[in-house]
Amino acid sequence: MSDDTPGIEFRAVAKRFGGRGAPLVVQGIDLVVPRGTLTTILGPSGCGKTTTLRLIAGLESPTAGTILIDGQDVTSLGAAERNVSMVFQSYALFPHLSVIDNVAYGLDVAGVSRGTARQRARATMALVGLVGYDTRSPSELSGGQQQRVALARALVLEPAVMLFDEPLSNLDARLRRSMREEIRALQQRLALTVAYVTHDQAEALAVSDQIIVMDGGRIAQAGTPRMLYEQPASAFVAGFMGEAMLFDAVAQADGSLALGPLQFAAPRAVPPGPVTLAIRPEAWQVAVGDGPGLPATLVKLAYLGSTCEASFDTALGSIFVVAPLLGDGVKPGAPMRLSLAGRGIAVVGSQG
Q1: What angle do CA 308, 236, 298 make, to 5 degrees?
Q2: How many CA atoms lie within 13 A of 32 on its CB side?
Q3: What's the CATH number of domain 8-238, 3.40.1030.10, 3.40.50.11600, 3.40.50.300, 1.10.357.10?
C-alpha cells in the first residue's frame, strides 16, 4: 500500500432500498477520504449522508459500485470483516457493564485474552481522559463522559477507519464544542482516517480536512472547509454552509460586478452578463449617514456582545448583516449606507 492510497474510496457507488423501480438513495457517487484525515459528510435530512456512512461500515451493501478501504476492495465484505469502528449518536453503551468492560467488549468478542484486553482498554481510556473510571457504570457518567467511553471502545480496536454518526447531537452547546475539539485533536495526534456525519455546519467547519455536501443522494460539492464556505459551487451549497442571501448582479467586461449602485471586483473570472451572487451577512460594511454606497434604512438591531445583527431596507430588498458594533446612538429608522468588503461573496450562477 503506497502512502497516497486513500483511506476510503467510493467508485460509482449507488444504493436503493427495495426493488428495481425504487429510487436511488445514493446516486452513483465517487468520493475519496485521504488516509489520516477527517472528512465530514454534510447535508439535509434525507440527502443520503447516513446511508453513505453505513455503506462504509458494511451495515448496508451497495446496489452498484465499488468500496475500497486502504486500497482493499471491501464491497462484498460484511461489517465484521472490515477494519472499521463506528461511534453512534446514542453511544450504544451496555448499561450492565462497567466502563472498562464496555471499552474492552470488542476485544473480548475478538478472543483477546482478558489481561491483554484490559491493558489495552486502560491505555485507550487514558487517551480520552477516563483514567480512574474503570469500575463506574454508564449511568454514573455525564453525557460527555459517556461519549468518551464510546470513543474509547471504538479506538481500542485500532481500526483502519473510524466512523462518527452525529456523535455530539445529544450534548449541550458548550460540551459539543469541547468534545469536537477533543475528537479533532485525537484524530490528528493518531493520524486516524475518519468519516464524520453531522447536520451541524459549524461542527463540520471546525473539525474537517474535507467536507462533502450531499443533496438528493448526489455530491453537491467536496473541498476544504474554506473552499466550501468562500467558493460555494451552487446556491444550495452557499445556503447550506452558513447564511447567505442571493442577489441578481451583472458581470462587467473589466472583471467587476455591478450590484445596484455598488461595483466591486469579482471573486473569480466570470463571462460578462447576468450572474447570481451569494453574499454572506458578514461581507457587508456599514456606515452611518449619507455618502457612497447602497442607501439603507436600519429596521432591526440586535446586540450580541462583540458583534451585532442588523436588518436593513434597501433598493435591493431586505438585507441581513452581521457587523461590528454600530454604537449606542444608532436606532431603527436611521439612514445608513452599505458597501461590500470583498470577502464572503461568491458567484453561484452565470448566464454568460
Answers
A1: 25
A2: 8
A3: 3.40.50.300
Once rounded to an integer, what is the mean pLDDT over residues 3-22? 91
Domain ranges, ordered by start, for the chain:
8-238, 246-350
pLDDT digits (tens, 9 = 90+) for 280-298: 999 999 998 777 899 999 9
pLDDT band at 187 (very low <50, low <70, confident <90, very high): very high
Q: What is the mean pLDDT of residues 107-135?
A: 92
CATH 2.40.50.140, domain 246-350, yes or no: yes
What is the average pLDDT score of the chain? 91
What band does 351 get if pLDDT is binned at 50, 70 and 90? Answer: low
